[in-house]
Amino acid sequence: MRAELIGVGTELLLGQIANTNAQWMSQELAAIGVDVLHHQVVGDNLDRIVEALTMGAERADVVLVTGGLGPTEDDITRDALAAMLGVPMRRHAEIEQLLRSKFDRYRRGDMPQSNLRQADVPKTCRTIVPIRGTAPGLIAELARGGRIYAMPGVPAEMREMMHATVLPELAALAGEAILVSRTVRCAGIGESRAAELLRDLFTTSTNPTIAYLASLGEVKVRLTAKAATADEAQRIISPVAEEVVRRLGDAVFTTHDESLEGAVGRLLRERGLRLASAESLTGGGVAERMSRAPGSSRTFVGGVVTYTREAKERVLGVSRPTLEGPGAVSEACAREMAAGVRRLFGA
Questions:
Q1: Which residues of 195-227 are buried (b: 16+ CB within 10 A; e: fewer)?
Q2: Strand 209-215's sheet: what is its strand order?
Q3: What is the extent of the structural domain holding 199?
Q4: 90 and 160: one domain?
Q5: If DSSP codes are grouped into helix, strand and coil, which group holds residue 326?
Q6: Among the three residues 254, 280, 307, which one is the final residue of a domain in this structure?
Q7: How far apart are CA 66 and CA 148, in angstroms?
Q8: I want to staple 63 with a disulfide (CB 3.0 to 4.6 A). Which of 36, 56, 74, 168 is the partner?
């Protein structure tokens, strides 16, 4: 099953908020074996929302929309959905009563007439009754067999509807399938070099698929398989993961999506060693990462930042000949800093 996600809201295009809904929804859909092929973001404009809905419905089996279901005049997702379907709006009596009862229950005073817009539903759509908030979700069954779900943009309200209605319905439609990923993480190798070593696997392997994700000082190789069960997906991944590790060699520091600092901490615990850090230009960055790793209190004893030459000499005992010869930014100085912090902390 192919899915497309559409986020509605000009605030998304202006960068005022991040579309975290799409990230969460993609993860949840992958867990039930639904392939998310496209993300769209569109502003609060009727014609452009209709265009986005039409495009999504043409290239996906299911379209999930978030945002634009509120009571104000710029909340026009329901209007766009009605226009795309070519049907009129109808006032949904049960939703209207729900809205009135929510305002009465929370003693908010008279309900603004604008809230009644949330009881207007495209004629052929089903509704998802909200528990949180006042915006009902909408479900449109398309003539060609596809489906559109429209949900509020408020994350808690969207997740409520995803868990209660959308994910169970899609899981039943998609059948027994699940997407599972395993990440091989590497350091000391560039993305392009990793890709060269794995080129034939990348081009020939379709299940699992292979993808690269580069970040500062690290490359991730993600292997993703689809199968009926998680165990079966892992069995599909395993031989390819083993070959990836064989080819990348010592650059691989974990095959379980473990952070670099987590892997260092694990190795320290396995070998009964303790670590201390002496830093200068990094300004405590190494100590910060090591101290956030799980179980760090058992392996990381402390760190110092000696930014100036005087601090390196006074705190860590770096010799003056080293500072005046090779200099503060040199391998010789780094070695003396390491020896000094080791003495200081007994690491």
A1: eebbeebeeebeebebeeeeeeebbbbbbbbbb
A2: 209-215, 218-227, 178-186, 252-254
A3: 178-254
A4: yes
A5: coil
A6: 254
A7: 11
A8: 56
Do residues 27 and 119 both lie within one domain? yes
CA gap 196, 185 in Å, rounded: 16
pTM of the model: 0.70
Angle, helices 331-345 vs 309-316, to 10°: value is: 40
Measure the CA–CA gap between 312 and 337, rounded to whole angstroms.
7
Q: How far apart are CA 88 and CA 141, in angstroms?
A: 15
- For the chain, the C-alpha Rg in angstroms (whole number) is 28
Q: Tell me how many domains the chain contains.
A: 3
pLDDT tens for each residue of 21-35 = 999 999 999 888 899
Q: Report in angstroms the alpha-carbon separations of 258 from 26, 126, 254, 294.
A: 21, 43, 6, 11
pLDDT tens digits, 77-123: 999 999 999 999 999 999 988 888 888 776 666 778 888 899 999 99
Q: Are 51 and 142 within one domain?
A: yes
Q: Measured between alpha carbons, how far is 276 from 18 in angstroms, rounded to an integer?
A: 38
Question: In this predicted model, what pLDDT tens digit does every residue of 325-338 receive, in sequence order?
Answer: 999 999 999 999 99
In whole angstroms, give the CA distance from residue 333 to residue 338: 9
Return the pLDDT at 76: 96
Report the Cα–Cα distance between both ends of the chain, in Å, rounded: 54
Q: Alpha carbon of 241 to those of 184, 221, 258: distances in Å?
A: 8, 9, 15
Q: What is the CATH number of the domain that holds 301?
A: 3.90.950.20
CATH number at residue 213: 3.30.70.2860
Whose CA is closest to 152, among 326, 317, 21, 48?
Answer: 21
Are 55 and 161 contained in the same domain? yes
User: In sequence order, what are the residues at sequence separation of 6 or more whose Cβ sits closer than 8 angstroms to the Cβ of residue 100?
Assistant: 111
Among 204, 232, 254, identify where a domain stops: 254
CATH number of domain containing 80: 3.40.980.10
276: its two tokens? 């201390």
